[in-house]
Amino acid sequence: MSGFAYVVHDGKTRKTTLREALHDQADLSWTHLTTNDERAKAWLGGEAQLGSIVLEALTAAETRPRCDAVGDGAVINLRGLSSEALASSDPLASIRIYAQGGHVFSVTRKPLNALDPVRKQVEAGEILDPGDLIAAIAQAITEELDPVVADLGDSLDECEEQIASRQVFDLRRSVNKARTQAIGYRRFINPQRAALERLATLPVEWLRDDDRLHLNAAADRAARMAEELESIRERAALMHESLTDLRAEQIDQRSLLIAVVAMVFLPLTFLTGLLGMNVEGIPFAHAPWAFWGVVAVCVVMAVGIAAYFLRRHWFET
């Protein structure tokens, strides 16, 4: 079991052990565990003496963003980007938080990128109470996710430009990738927005007015990302249909070209096959001009058939 702990007292931050942070009566006591083993569950339920509801929320294998009041505290689950490669269906790492009075317990099962900047803020003395800490985590998560969602939209813009120029090769893979990522992010961004909004309205003393403003700002940013992800998903679906139509059109055009070429050469093949039979009675078989005469007839036939198709606009795309 690994983790870290900080205590903040009278604006001064000190890094300490998990046990000392648990019993320190500070303005802020933050205990964080990075693990998914049974020792963390035993420590939280034993030494930390957290209730079964809180313990289950902090150690559950599968979570989604949520915010629930538990007595005079709150359980908050959020999702953010991770340095570890995750499945496309579950692309965001979770952080589970329980805040009560001056104590904040948090647990992550996968590395969470947002923790590093928050720890730097704590060490710099910029975070003084639980409300500051939770608002900082929420803001760090949304600030990191925002450009990622914007990049997804930019990648679709590039795909749309290539579709407009009819450069459709290998585009379906890019569109499908953007669509899959948007669906994976949207799965957690929508409930995360609702969780932040609910947290900002909880009637708890450890959330100050400025903390609620920061939480509402993070929720608003999450709402905007959710709307952008929904737009990306719909645009990707439309682009996929357009690519399918363009690909079918290209196949039809190539099939038409092959059919026209076959129609040009079919009569010529019949004529040369007929004259090439090894039987007696073929007209002009021994005439010195017969070969060139057949060649001329074939050229005239090919030009005539091609001209017919040109007049019928079969070659137009």
Strand order of the largest sheet: 2-1-3-7-6-5-4
What percent of residues adopt helix (DSSP H or I)?
55-70%
- Beta content: 5-15%
Total count of strands:
7
What does the radius of gyration come to?
35 Å
Categorize the overall geometry: rod-shaped
Q: Helix count? A: 8
Distance between the termini: 66 Å
Average pLDDT for all residues: 85
Weakly predicted, low-confidence segments: none
Structural class: alpha+beta
Q: The biggest beta sheet, please?
A: 7 strands, mixed
SSE run: EEHEHHEEEEHHHHH
Q: How do the strands and helices of this protein lay out in sequence?
A:
Elements: E1 2-9, E2 12-16, H1 18-23, E3 28-34, H2 38-45, H3 52-59, E4 66-70, E5 73-80, E6 93-100, E7 103-108, H4 115-123, H5 130-164, H6 171-200, H7 209-275, H8 290-311
Parallel strand pairs: 3-7
Antiparallel strand pairs: 1-2, 1-3, 4-5, 5-6, 6-7
Helix pairs in contact: 2-3, 4-5, 5-6, 5-7, 6-7, 7-8
